[in-house]
Design brief:
The chain has 132 residues and is mainly alpha-helical. Helices cover 73% and strands 6% of the residues. The N terminus is likely disordered.
Amino acid sequence: MEQPINGTAVPQDMDRLSVMRRVLEGLPETTLIVFMAHRVEGKRYAEIAREMGVSEWRVERHMVRAISRIADVGARYRAAFAALDFVSRQVLELAWDGLSNDRIAVRLGLSLHDVEARMTEALVALDEATTL
């Protein structure tokens, strides 16, 4: 969900789980099915191939595609997060831990406006880095 702040669309969920969910939702349907069957359901490539009526090689190609996409987005997410200044990283981490903006401001000795501005800039940077 995005919320406009000062004319900027700010993603509200940019934690790792949300990014992973977005990556998975962006995979082609067959690739997602193969990935979920293998990684979530624990099926072997041979079993997936048999169920889908394709070769094991095709199943492996879909897995390579999924893992490559996940690794690529993960690397961009980590790089964007690391590029944030120390205080902005703290603001995001505290927000992900469930603290409200006013509590973050008190904890870090910032104004509420500064917390909101840092969060907006950080979330937009993470969103831009991970948009497929």
